[in-house]
Prior knowledge:
rod-shaped; mainly alpha
Amino acid sequence: MSNLNQIGLNEAKTKELAILLNDLLANYSTFYQNVRGYHWNIKGDKFFELHLKFEELYNNLFLKIDEV
């Protein structure tokens, strides 16, 4: 039988999953910060349209980060 942790999950697989989830979280966090930067630094004729869109995107990303 394989090594199980206290809640009955395979230790090797949970370590692998934790590494993958940490990478996903780091990528989401970086993407969130970039989109938030675009939101504040957008210029040009489409400012208001893009400003609102980037706000929508970074709010959605914030929720995704919380889910991870």
